[in-house]
Amino acid sequence: MAAPVQDAAAVRDRAPVRDAASASSAGPWSLRHLHLELLVSFAAAGAGRLRGQARLELRCERHGAGAELRLDAHPSLAVSRAALLPPPGGPGDAAGQALPVESRPFASYGSALHIALPQAPRAGQLLTLLIDYEAGEGPGVCWLSPEQTAGKQKPYMYTQGQAVLNRSFFPCFDTPSVKFTYSATVKVPEGFTAVMSATSWEKQKDNTFVFKMSQPIPSYLIALVVGDIVSADVGRGEGFRRAPELWELSRVWAEPCQIEAAKKEYDGVIEEFLVVGEKLFGPYVWGRYDILFMPPSFPFGGMENPCLTFVTPCLLAGDRSLVDVIIHEISHSWFGNLVTNATWGEFWLNEGFTMYAQRRISTEVYGLPYTCLEAATGRVLLRQHMDATGEDHPLNKLRVVIEPGVNPDDTYNETPYEKGYCFVSYLAHLVGNQSKFDAFLQAYVNRFKFQSITADDTLGFFLEYFPELKEKGVDSIPGFEFDRWLNTPGWPPYLPDLSPGQQLMRPADELAELWAADGLNMEAIEAVDITGWRTYQLVYFLDQILQKSPLPEGNVKRLSKMYPKISKAQNAELRLRWCQIVLKNNLEAEYSKVKDFLHSQGKQKYTLPVYRAMWGGSEATRALAMETFSATAPQLHVNVQNYVKKILGLGEAEA
Ligand SMILES: [Zn+2]
C-alpha cells in the first residue's frame, strides 16, 4: 500500500476553484477528514433507510469566512441536528454545542444547508462539526427490490456519487474541487455485507463494517454498497511481474450466484493492466484494485470508485472477451481519481485523458491495429452525437459553461471522451515522440496528484514541460489554437491517425460485403476464418452487416448458423448488435434472443437501442417490445424505465 498523504490541505497550493454546481461555502474552508457513522435498514417494500451521523473536520483557510457555513445537501436528506464539538482535550459537552441549521432551496438537484457558527472563525482555526441525518430514496442512494438483483432473494442498496448525487447520501462540500480523506462505520442487517471505495475494509461484531480511505478524494468518489455479496481473490496471473508486497491482491465482489463466473472471467488478468499502467503513468497509489459486479439493473457500464470499481454484470461475457473494458476504469486510477477536474465543466480532463491512457495501455497489451479499431468505434459515436445535436451545440466544447441551476449530469455526452481524446492526441502529436509524451504524462500525474485542476493548469504545465514548444507558440497555431480546442464547439480540428486499424477493418468489410450479396458465395465466405477476431473486430463486422440490413431473404439465418460465436455470444457488445440485426431483418426465429438479452441486464446503453429498434420495426417487433417491457420493467432502474416509456410512447417520462 502506498504511504498516505499527511494532510489533504497541504498539497493544495491555491484556493479551490468556484464551482457553480455547489451551494457550499467550500472556498474559505478545507475539509481535512469526513467520518460517517451509518445504520442501514431495508424496508419490506420500497426504499429502506439510512440513519447516520457525519463528522466533518474543517479548517478555516482564510479570513472572511463569516459566521455561517454552507454544505451541499438534498431535500431527501433529513437533518435533525448540527453541533459543534469542543476542541480535543478542551472543556465542553461531548455531545457538542447545538447550532442553528436550516435547509434552503438551491437547484433541482440539491439544497443548501446553512449552519450558523457561534462566531466567525480565524484563519487556521480547526472546527469539528457533527450532523445527524437520515437519507431515504435520493438520486444518489438506490434501493433495489429482490427482483432487481441477480439472486432475486434479498434487497440491495448502492450509491452513485458522480456527478452531484452524493449530496443526497451525506451533507458535504459536494464539489470535485475539494479533496479529503474519509472513514466510515456501517452497521447492516444480518445476512448482508457492506463494501466501500476505501483502502481498508474490516468486519467487526454485530455486522458492523469499518472503512478507511487514506488518500484524499473528492466527494463523488465515496461509494457504498450493501447487499448479499461475497468476494473471491483474483490475481497473480502470468502477467504479474511486480514484487508481491507492493500491493494487495485484487478481489472480485458479486452476489453469490455470480461469484464463480466473476472469478473465472477475471482471474489473473487485472494485474497485467495495473503493471502496464504503472509503467506508463507512475505508481498505483490506491493499494488495492477490486471489482464489484453490480446487479443486472445497474444502469451504467462502470464507475471508477477508487479501490473498488463498480461494473455492470454485462462484463461477465464468459470468454474474457470484455476484459479490456476494465482498462478504462483502471486508467481512472491516474486520470480522474488522482488528478481531478476542479469543476464538471472541464470533465474532459477526467475522461479525455482517461481515453488516451486506456488506449496507451491497450496498445501495449493488444497492439496498435486493435487499439485503432476500438478508437474508430469511439469516433463513430462522436460523429453520431455531433450529427444528432449539430456541431455548433454549446455542449460540443471541451470547456462547457455550466450555468447556475443547470444539472451537470444534463451536460453529459461523448465530447469530453472522444474530442478530449483527440486533443490529448494532438498534444502528443505536437511533441512528436511517444516516449517523450509518456514521460510528460507521468510528470503531469506527479505534479498534480491529489489535486483538482483546470485546463489552464494542464496546458500551462505542458508548455512549461516543453519550453521549445512554448517558444514556437504551439498554443496559437491558426486553426489549432488551444483556446479554440477548449472554447469552440464542433468537430475536432485534429484527428489522430487510426489507419493501422485498417488491417483489421478490411477483412471485416470484405466479409460483410459477401454476406450482403444476393446469391451467397459460400466458398469465399468459408475461406474467411474469424476464429481469431477479437471483440471490436467482430463489433465492426456486425456494424457493417447492420448498415446493409435488411439483407436478402435467408442470409441472416445462414449467417447465424455459420457463426455461433456471434449469434450465441454472451458478450453484451455482440449481443446488442445481434439483436439489432435480428430485428432489422425480421428474423422471428431469434426474437427469443432479444427477449433474453433484455431480461438478463438493464444497462441503459444496451437497453434503449434495442427498444428503439423494436419500436422502429414491424407490428410483431412492437408487440415484442410491449410484452418484454411489461415483464422486465420492475427490474429496471427508474431512469431507464422512464426512457423506455418515452420510446414506447407510454408518456410519464421525467425531465
Ligand atoms: Zn470514464
Automatic annotation (TrEMBL):
Keywords: Acetylation, Hydrolase, Metal-binding, Metalloprotease, Protease, Secreted, Zinc
Record keyword Membrane present: no
Pfam families documented for this protein: Leuk-A4-hydro_C (PF09127), Peptidase_M1 (PF01433), Peptidase_M1_N (PF17900)
SMART domains in the record: Leuk-A4-hydro_C
UniProt EC number: 3.4.11.6
Gene3D superfamilies: 3.30.2010.30, Neutral Protease Domain 2 (1.10.390.10), Peptidase M1, leukotriene A4 hydrolase/aminopeptidase C-terminal domain (1.25.40.320), tricorn interacting facor f3 domain (2.60.40.1730)
Binding site for Zn(2+): 328, 332, 351
Cofactor entry: Zn(2+)
Record's cofactor remark: Binds 1 zinc ion per subunit.
Record function comment: Exopeptidase which selectively removes arginine and/or lysine residues from the N-terminus of several peptide substrates including Arg(0)-Leu-enkephalin, Arg(0)-Met-enkephalin and Arg(-1)-Lys(0)-somatostatin-14. Can hydrolyze leukotriene A4 (LTA-4) into leukotriene B4 (LTB-4).
Record-stated family: Belongs to the peptidase M1 family.
Name of the protein: Aminopeptidase B
Organism (species): Hirundo rustica rustica
